[in-house]
Design brief:
Elements (H helix, E strand, L loop, with lengths): L14 H19 L1 H6 L1 E4 L2 E4 L3 H26 L3 H25 L6 H10 L6 H41 L14 H31 L5 H7 L12 E14 L9 H21 L3 E6 L2 E6 L2 H21 L7 E18 L2 E7 L1 H15 L4 E4 H6 L8 E8 L5 E7 L5 H22 L3 H14 L4 H15 L1
Parallel strand pairs: 6-8
Antiparallel strand pairs: 1-2, 3-5, 3-6, 4-5, 6-7, 8-10, 9-10
Helix pairs in contact: 1-3, 3-4, 4-6, 6-7, 9-10, 13-14, 14-15
């Protein structure tokens, strides 16, 4: 409940206000007593006023100044304790009273003939014959009154502008970590408290949403959101989909079935120890994991070169891990990579939404993996990926054959032998012409000529398993 009287009994009055009020009363009494001495010291004359204060008059002036200052402080505190409408009224009231009184005295000053009035007229240069100066003083007093009134309203309404700015920012979902400050009177303290509560709730919900998004990224990768043009899990809706060109990688881990001497828990931890190496590498090269399975995982990349770089990094990481696990079976890998049109979307039903990719690429990768296994290769990829690579991208590869595509046409396959030991890689480079020529002859059904080419390639690189496969297949075709 607001009080209209600054001296009214108020149990919630601050201690500082009580002290100022006590001092005001303490100085007010002697000021009133010594007021006569102050008035006596102001002597009217034909040139204005002469100031002839005695000791009591000087003391009265000092006490009067202190009393007026204390009164102003108390009045300001009283105004600040009021709501905005009452604060504006009570702060404007003294100005209006002073303005009205000044204009009244100015208008009637020429009608007074006592000594005090004559001194004031002398100072202001006002006379019945000189109304011009009276009008000028009236205009000056009016301007001063308007300026003081404007300043008063500006100061009291300034917190409203801060409230508007803060509310606008909160409305846009922007929050601040530090405490919001408005200033102003008691009413604004309450508004400030409420706005800080809103800001705190925004912060809490924002942090909670960020935590949910971070947790969601463990199940739904951030890159998946980017492909769908979404920012958070809350924006995902059933049926959301987008078709884009992407590179899909199938990674299969070999040798896991040889771990029968391990318990199920040990085997599970063993598999995960390799996943903990592969998964961060996929994220490092800008990809995301679409799904895990018991033998490996499927990952998606926005750019073909990122997929090739990642495949090389995975191969090196698995070799290092194998050397570290001296007492455990070595794990190998087959990596199949293909570029094509992929649909990124949300499937399932309202109670359970699952992000997934849908594409012929996925089924083609399974067949590509069979070729990789058949050829004893480590990394294979298709011509569609090769065509997507930058012209200046260099690595070691060779053509190893083709398979028929689902939609007609052939899928041309290449082997990436960048990761092989230097000695083997240098031999494969030298035998590349013979091997690729042999593959072309094999596809044309010229098995005898193909056998000769593969034989030349094996002379250069006897450890070329893929070449042995083609050599033996060519022999079988000839024998039939």
């Amino acid at each position: 409940m607001y009080t209209f009287l600054p001296f009214a009994k108020n149990k919630s009055m601050k201690r500082s206000t009580k002290i100022i009020l006590a001092l005001f009363i303490l100085f007010l009494v002697p000021t009133l007593v010594l007021g006569k001495s102050v008035i006596k010291g102001i002597v009217p004359s034909d040139k204005g006023f002469l100031l002839k204060f005695d000791t009591q008059g000087i003391i009265g002036i000092v006490l009067g100044v202190i009393t007026i200052v204390l009164l102003i402080i108390l009045y300001i505190k009283f105004i600040m304790s009021q709501p905005v409408d009452k604060a504006i009224f009570f702060s404007s009231l003294p100005l209006i009273v002073l303005y009205g009184l000044s204009m009244f005295l100015l208008a009637g000053l020429t009608n007074f003939n006592n000594a005090t009035a004559n001194s004031v007229k002398t100072i202001l240069n006002i006379s019945p014959d000189n109304l011009y100066n009276t009008i000028l003083w009236a205009i000056l007093i009016t301007l001063i009154f308007i300026l003081l009134l404007f300043f008063n309203c500006f100061v009291l309404c300034k917190p409203i502008a801060r409230v508007e700015k803060i509310v606008s920012r909160l409305g846009d979902g922007k929050v601040k970590d530090e405490r919001l400050k408005i200033g102003g009177g008691k009413q604004f303290n309450s508004i400030e408290h409420s706005l800080n509560k809103i800001n705190y709730n925004y912060q809490s919900k924002d942090k909670s949403l960020k935590t949910v998004n971070l947790e969601a990224q463990k199940f739904i990768p951030r890159q998946f959101f980017k492909f769908l043009g979404k920012n958070s899990i809350a924006e995902l809706e059933l049926g959301n989909q987008v078709k884009k060109n992407a590179t899909v990688m199938l990674v299969k881990l070999l040798g896991l079935e040889e771990n029968e001497r391990m318990s199920l828990e040990e085997n599970f931890n063993f598999i995960n120890s390799y996943m903990h190496i592969i998964s961060p590498l996929i994220r490092k090269f800008g990809g995301f994991i679409d799904r895990y399975n018991s033998e490996g995982l499927t990952a998606v990349f926005a750019k073909a070169e990122y997929a090739i770089d990642c495949a090389h990094a995975i191969s090196r990481a698995i070799s290092i891990k194998n050397r570290q696990n001296k007492n455990l079976p070595n794990v190998g890998q087959r990596i199949s990579i293909m570029t094509g049109e992929v649909i990124f979307g949300i499937v399932g039903e309202e109670e359970r939404k699952i992000p997934s990719i849908i594409s012929n690429v996925s089924s083609s990768l399974t067949r590509l993996d069979e070729v990789c296994k058949f050829m004893s290769a480590k990394i294979v990829f298709t011509k569609s990926l090769l065509d997507s690579l930058p012209l200046n991208y260099k690595f070691l590869y060779r053509h190893i054959g083709k398979i028929s595509g689902k939609e007609g046409g052939d899928i041309i396959i290449f082997e990436d032998f960048e990761f092989n030991p230097k000695e083997i890689s240098s031999q494969l480079i030298k035998s590349k012409y013979y091997f690729e020529h042999g593959v072309t002859l094999y596809d044309e059904g010229r098995y005898e000529d193909a056998t000769k080419e593969f034989s030349e390639a094996l002379k250069i690189c006897p450890k070329d398993k893929g070449c042995y496969v083609y050599f033996n297949k060519s022999k079988e075709k000839l024998s039939h």
